[in-house]
Amino acid sequence: MNAYFYYFYNMMRNIFGLLWNIVLAIRDAIVGILDIDFYIRLFDTYRDDLSPIGWVAALITHIIILLIFILLVYLLFRGVRVLLRFKVPVVEYERMKDEIVTLKREIMKANYEKDKILAMKISDLGMEVNPELMKSGLNEPAADEPDKKNGTDAEEAAQADTPAETKADELLAAFSGESEQAAPAADSADETGAAGEAEEEAAPLTNDEKKRYSVFHFDGERRFPRLTSVDQLYMSPQYEAPQYRMDYNLEELCVLFRNFSAGKLGLYYELELIKQVFASFGAAKMLILQGISGTGKTSLPYALGQFIENPSLICSVQPSWRDRTELFGYYNDFTKKYTETEFLKTLYECHFQEDLRFIILDEMNIARVEYYFAEMLSILELPREDERYVSVVSNGADGDPYKMVDGKIWIPSNALYVGTINNDDSTFAVADKVYDRAIPIDLDDKASPFETPDTPSMRVSYTYLNSLYDVAKQTYTISEENLMELERLDAYLIKHFRLTFGNRIMRQIKDFVPCYIACGGTELGGIDFMFAKKILRKFESLGLGFIRDEIDGLVLYLEKTFGEDEMKISREYLLRLKRMSSGG
Fold first, then answer.
1. pLDDT at res. 106
2. Is the pLDDT of residue 143 over 50?
3. Which residues pair with 416 in a beta bridge?
4. Phi and psi (nearest 5°) for 284?
5. What is the pTM of this model?
6. Tens digits of per-residue pLDDT, 312-328?
């Protein structure tokens, strides 16, 4: 046995030794081929003896050899790449095939369930199921089957004197579950029809009627199943619109919400803050709540949703958000469906509601707001509400939601947006374009608990609330004297700080101040708030060293113009900036 091991050892050593010699020979050959110094020395040996033709031939030879070498390296690279990825397409193909099989099974199951539900609804209407007409969603009696009640052809009687609009309504009611409207159709047709009369041809259904009918029945795959479910809920005859309370003014609304929040939710807020919040929504569609953690930035809009009996939608912003698809979703080319988000569904629900709806962008500056919310900022800025459309898909298709027009949906006015901001090292700075289009409110402290009467929640109509804002803007317009003082203040800022109010901010001031007065505030109080939040906030971007010497002059100007007891928010803000600039 020992002799065998010696034999095996020597044989393996000889084989591996020869293999190693082959490796070394290949290495030496590669090194030798790439020995540029040798070729240079070899060329130097003969170059003095080369004729002009020899020089040309040598140059061509070198170029050809270089091209061949580059080609060999490229082919070697491609070969290695193919070897490394050889199994990947096979694995991907098998995975995709399994997904396709699973999708087909789900589609078959969904079609089976749809047919069962359709058959049950038609059965409730007292009609016999005709399998040939199940595909189209209609289950009218066959043409040669006599009507058992009247002894006439039921299909001819139904089509004889029923106009296209009535027929569309009957079809819609049938698929919505209203069996009472289906049976009288045939009877009324028999009563009005007479034997031997010429049959009236019903006019074809309009596009709107077809679209309304397709809400409850569509043969193909829907691209927006969640939005279609919203259509089916609110367009169903069983849906009843809520009753709204309309016996309050803006000041009473602020008090009612504050009492409800404290008594029902245990969330306490200063009345002045509530006035600022409701007045802000009269001047802009977006509110920004900023400040230290734990002061109730998210709780405040949450409590608003509970108060109006329409829960607020909380969208938790993620650091990876880069574009509008994070909010609106995207179309999946593989499934042929749109990935619908809660944000998109909530906007679409607002089409059918008169309620207010608050949408919260929680920690909105954990990603860049001007990236993922840029389109919404532009749309909300449009002066005409009927122009506020956002494109969801490139074009329309059969089975799309009823309120969608050519792949676009309208941004409803009853949706209001609240963004919360934490100013720390883990977040991005919010761009001026965001602050300019919104109204910021600082929450730096918490209100103390207080006793409050029992206050129930209530349904708030956006139409009614908007009418209160309109009345306030007509009743409590800013006085001409204060408008002139604002113009002088604007000129002072341009001269000393190179800042100006701008048309947008001036328009917001003219809208905010009347609404703030209607909420129980004063005219100068509203001007003070807007000046501090919209103008003085820009000072932070100027550099404290640049404005330090001018702050005292602005404080004196405000006291001289508006009075020493007025403009308290602005004076406190300026004094805080001065302390920061001096390191105090």
1. 73
2. no
3. 358
4. -150, 160
5. 0.67
6. 999 999 999 999 999 99
Residue 445 has pLDDT above 90, yes or no: no
Contacts 24+ apart (CB under 8 A), 101-106: 103/335
As a CATH number, domain 221-461 is 3.40.50.300
Q: Contact, 378 vs 443, CB < 8 A? A: no
- Containing H/E element for 416? strand 415-421
* Burial degree of 370 (CB within 10 A; 0-12, 13-18, 19+): middle
User: How far apart are the C-alpha atoms of 303 and 308, rounded to whole Å?
Assistant: 9
CA atoms within 13 A on the CB side of 471: 10
Which 3-state string (H, E, C) describes 86-138? Answer: CCHHHHHHHHHHHHHHHHHHHHHHHHHHHHHHHHHHHHHCCCCCCHHHCCCCC
pLDDT on residue 157: 40
SS3 420: strand
Residue 122 scores a pLDDT above 90: no
Q: What is the pLDDT of residues 549-575, one digit of tens each?
A: 788 899 999 999 998 889 999 999 888
Cα-based distances in Å from 381 to 200, 206, 365, 387, 453: 52, 35, 20, 10, 40
**What percentage of the chain has pLDDT greater than the value 90?**
47
Cβ count within 10 A of residue 580: 12
Look up residue 51 and give its amino acid.
S
Q: Is 301 helix (H, G, I), strand (E, B) or coil?
A: helix
pLDDT of residue 543: 67
**Could you give phi then psi for residue 298, rounded to 5 degrees?**
-80, -30
CA distance 569 to 584: 20
Which residues make beta-bridge pairs with 418?
287, 360
Question: Cα separation of 358 and 304, whole Å?
Answer: 8
Is the separation of the CB atoms in 556 and 565 below 8 Å? no
Length of the chain: 584
**Of residues 404 and 157, more confidently modeled:** 404
* 8-state DSSP, 478: P
* Half-sphere exposure at residue 144, Cβ-oriented, CA atoms within 13 angstroms: 0
With tokens 């007292």, the residue in question is: 126
In DSSP terms, which residues pair with 316 in a beta bridge?
A: 362
Please write down the HEC assignment for all residues of 442-471.
Answer: ECCCCCCCCCCCCCCCCCCEHHHHHHHHHH
What is 177-225 written as a DSSP string? T--TTTHHHHHHHHHH--TTPPPPPPPPPPHHHHHHHHTT--SS--S-H
Listed residue (412, 418, 419, 558) closest to 496, CA to CA: 558
305, pLDDT greater than 90: yes
Residue matched to tokens 């909380």: 314
Contact 392, 338 (CB under 8 A): yes
Q: Which of 35-44, 88-97, 293-302 is predicted most confidently?
A: 293-302
> What phi-psi label fits residue 291: left (phi over 0), alpha (psi between -120 and 50 degrees) or beta?
left
pLDDT of residue 280: 97
For 322, residues 6+ apart whose C-beta sits below 8 A from its C-beta are 367, 368, 371, 372
Domain definitions of the chain by residue range = 221-461, 476-584
pLDDT reading at 23 higher than 70:
yes
